[in-house]
Amino acid sequence: MASRDLWAGVGSALAFIAALITMAMNQVRIKLLINKMSAYFSPYIQITIPEYSAKRFERSELFVAIEAYLSEHCIRGATKLKAELVREEHKPNVSVDDEQEIIDKFQGTTLWWYAYTEYPKSQVITVEPGTDKRRFYRVSFHRSIRKKVLNDYVPHVLEKGRAVIADKRQRCLFTNNPYGHSPALWSNVVFQHTATFDTLAMDPTKKKAIIDDLEAFKKGKDYYGKVGKAWKRGYLLFGPPGTGKSTMVAAIANFLEYDVYDLELTAVNNNTELRKLFVETKGKSIIVIEDIDRSISLTVKRTDDKSAGDSNNTYMTSLPKERDKGDNDIKLTLSGMLNVIDGLWSACGSERIIIFTTNNKSKLDPALIRRGRMDMHIEMSYCRYEAFKVLARNYLPEINDHQLFDLYGEIRQLLEEVDMSPADVAEHLMLTENKDADACFKSLVVALKNAKDDKANAKEETVQIYTG
Ligand SMILES: Nc1ncnc2c1ncn2[C@@H]1O[C@H](COP(=O)(O)OP(=O)(O)OP(=O)(O)O)[C@@H](O)[C@H]1O
Ligand SMILES: [Mg+2]
C-alpha cells in the first residue's frame, strides 16, 4: 500500500513537472509565433550589427563606423552618454551609451538606432575582463525604405563614420624592431612632430610644386584605378645635412595626415624580413628610409660578386643585383628591395608613400631612384633669402617686417654668397634669455660674414696651390 502511494506520489510529481515543461515550451513557441506574426505584419524592419562577427576576433569595421557616426552626428538628442579618455589626449571622447534611442534623419526618412549589450547566461571564464559580453547596434526603419537604407544609408553611415575616425585618430610613428628581439615587427609612439609646409623653409616655387603633387596624389584614387597603377608614390629627398629633409618628411605626414614608418635598414637582415615589414604597414602611411646610401652599405656585407656595383664601388649596389635563389633568406639585396617596392606591397593596401633621404644622390643606383619608383626628386638646398624669411617668422614671430627690412638687404646679399644650411641659420635665430631678436640677427650676420671670409681664404689657398 505504502509503495503504491509512493509511486502514485512520484507519478503525480512527474506529471506536474511534465505539465510545467509543456507549458514553458508552449510559451516559447507562442512567443516565437507572436514574434513571427508581429514581424510579418509590422511595417518596420530591424537590422542588427554585432561588434564582433562570428569568425573574426577583430571589431567589425561597420560597428566601429556606426559608433563614430552616431557619436558625431546624432548625439544632440541623446541624454545617456559615456566618456572615455583615449591615450594621451586631454579631452575625453564622448559617445552615446547603451539603451539610448537615437533618431537619425536621412533624405526625409527617419531611422531609430539603439545600442545594447548581451551578457552570457552561463558563467564564462575569460582571460580579459569584459570580453564575455557582446555588444550590438540595432537600426529600425519603415520597410518602404529598405532599398534606400541598404543602398544609400548604410554606405553613407560607413563613409561618415570612417571620416570621423580618421579625423580623431592619433597618428603614429612606427620603428622596426631588430628581428627576433620582439614578436612585433614594428613599435609605435604617437607622432607629434609639428612641422608643416608653412614652417618649412625652402624655395616657394619648389614648395608649391610639392604641395600640388601631394594634393593630386591624395585625390588620385580614381585616377590610379583608371590607369591601373598602385596608389603609391615615391619621393627622393636629397641635399646637404641640416637642409630639412627629415623636417620635410614630417611636414608631408602632417599635410596628408598619414602615419610614418621609419624603416631602419641596418636592423633588417634579409629580403624576407624586408618584405614582411613592408606587408605589415597599413594604408595612409609613409615609409621612410633615411640616409639610404649609408644604411645599405652598412647592412650588406660586400661580396666578391664581380657584377656588383660599378667599378668605383660607389653605388650602394655593391650588393649583388641578380637574384640568387637563396638570397632572400641570407641577405638584403638591391633586387630584393626593388621587388618589395614594385611588387606585393604596392598591390596590398593603398595610399602609400615611400621616401628615401640621402646626402649623396650620386651614390645611389639609378635603378633605385628611377622615375616610377622615386616619382619626384626633391633637392633640399642651403638657406637663401626666401627660406630665411620663413625661418625668421618661425623663430621670431614678434618681429615685424619693418624691423627686419633694414637687415634684409645685408642678410639677403650674404645668403646669396654663402652656403649655410637652414639648421645653422635657425641656430642663430633662437631666442634665449640673454638674446633678443636684434642680437639674433647680429649673430647671424657675424656668422655669415665669417663664413664668407673662410670661403674667400679657402679659394685663395687653392689658387696659390694651383699656381705655385
Ligand atoms: N628647410 C628647413 N625648414 C625649417 N627648418 C629647418 C629646415 N632645415 C633644417 N631645419 C631645422 O634644422 C633641424 C635639422 O633639420 P633636418 O633634420 O630636417 O635636416 P636633414 O636635412 O634631415 O639633415 P640630415 O641630412 O643631417 O639628416 C630641424 O630640426 C629644423 O629645426
Ligand atoms: Mg635627416
Q: Could you characterize the architecture of this molecule?
A:
With 468 residues, the protein is an alpha/beta fold. It has three domains: 37-168, no CATH class; 172-379, P-loop containing nucleotide triphosphate hydrolases (Rossmann fold); 385-467, no CATH class. It contains 16 helices and 13 strands. It has a seven-stranded mixed sheet with strand order 8-7-10-11-12-9-13, with helices on both faces. The longest helix is centred in the first third of the chain and has 40 residues, at 2-41. The radius of gyration is 33 Å and the shape is elongated. Adenosine-5'-triphosphate (ATP) binds at residues 199-202, 241-247, 359, 380, 422-423, 426.
Query: How large a portion of the residues is in β-strands, by DSSP E?
Result: 15-25%
Number of strands: 13
Task: Enter the CATH topology name of the largest domain.
Answer: Rossmann fold
- Poorly predicted sequence stretches spanning 5 or more consecutive residues: 298-325
Mean pLDDT: 81
Question: What is the annotated CATH architecture of the largest domain?
Answer: 3-Layer(aba) Sandwich
Please summarize the sheet with the most strands.
7 strands, mixed
Q: Which class best fits the helix and strand makeup? A: alpha/beta
Domains, number = 3
Each distinct ligand? adenosine-5'-triphosphate, magnesium ion
Organism: Oryza punctata (Red rice)
Family: Belongs to the AAA ATPase family. BCS1 subfamily.
Keywords: ATP-binding, Magnesium, Membrane, Nucleotide-binding, Transmembrane, Transmembrane helix
Cofactor: Mg(2+)
